[in-house]
Amino acid sequence: MPRTKALAQELPFIFFIGKVASPEKVLAQLRSHTEGARYRYGILYHKKSLTDHEQARYNEFFDVALEANFNNPISIAQTLAPYYDDIVGVTCRSEAKIPDFAKIVPYFPYLKTPTSESLMWSVDKVKMRRRFHAYNPKITPRYKIAKDATKKTLDEIEQKVGFPLVIKPSGLAQSLLVTICYHQEELETNLKKVFRKIKSLHKNYKDADDLPEVIVEQFVDGDMYSIDGYVNAKGKIYWCPPVHITTGKSIGFDDFFGYQQITPTTLTPSSIDELKETTLDGVHALGLRSSTFHAELIKNNKGWKIVEIGPRVGGFRDTMYHLSYGIHHGLNDVLIRIPKTPILPKKTLGHTAVLKFFAPKEGIITTLTGIKKARELDSFYHIDVNKKVGDRASFAKNGGKSVFNITFHNKDRSKLLADIRRLEKMIKIETKKTTKK
Questions:
Q1: Would residue 79 count as lying in a domain?
Q2: Which one is predicted more confidently, 207 or 379?
Q3: What is the pTM of this model?
Q4: Rg from Cα positions in the chain
Q5: How far is CA 90 from CA 15, 32, 41, 329, 334, in A?
Q6: Considering 65, 88, 111, which residue would you say is the last residue of a domain?
Q7: Domain span at residue 368?
Q8: Does residue 406 belong to any structural domain of this protein?
Q9: How many domains does the chain divide into?
């Protein structure tokens, strides 16, 4: 529950921009720590962007919940005016709301924040690749921008990028429409599909020139890892431990969602140093400062390549870092912006894994079994069930959400892996195709 607001009126404010998933958990974690309890917490969101339920929850858990028209400078300034003197830091936890954060940053010229430009470079895959290539071509895969699916474009892509390759619409999050192609026929079919879908999926377009660009880049076959960290106003990075990611593709899905995420990893110290060196180049290429970042990379026998870097806390990292290392990731996200030094305990407390389960085939879910038994496994920590029998299951690349996400934790890695294996054997998700009327 939120603290009594009357008791907190003299404390400075930390403001969140956009949306916060599970605000009760995020704020409880912040307020439970001695350092986090020294602040009030507010949220500023775009006018009419929330449901009534979301508004009610924000009003309950935040000390202040404010609404403004993010496209109207006067509305923003007038809404923030009563709180300016008390605000010491601003942050954004939602990947989809980073563009809104970029709009708000100029209204806090005397706080430590990322620049609006660096935020937009970080959420636009085309601009990101250009920044990486200009700073250090070795850290990024080959790529080309596709504006159509003509024979000329297909030939140019094959010559410059080569196969296999990946199609990635810029500005669309969570693996949406990300597709791998192994030959030119697949490339033509999938490019046409992307161009058809992109207009309906991208809600913010005004005309054809405003639609997201489509980037086609080299597919780097290898092991996927991520690492979060905090970069201060001078570019110094404080590192969190790496996380190993098993993608949906590697377990047989024609999709790129992160199926399993686990930490600690089995990377050698020298490999972790190389991972950090590559990531540091990427963070500096984007000009990120006074921010948390979430980086995803691929490792193969030729080294490391950056998939992407986001100016935010990584998904599930609050829980994973806290269980395995005692790191308060959300608190550190606040501290780097105040600015204060992040708190990073060194001791490893155990092994943590998060798994996202999708249906093997798209359609209406007819069978969903094994979840009750999963709760009885020794490594079980938490589960979020997103779908039930009768709901439609879609792949991540088509905008679908996982059927459920489950978190395991165990001090013994071998026992954790054994429970993951048991889980995979007990879960059964079946679907039936929908018929068009």
A1: yes
A2: 379
A3: 0.90
A4: 22
A5: 5, 20, 10, 16, 8
A6: 111
A7: 223-432
A8: yes
A9: 3
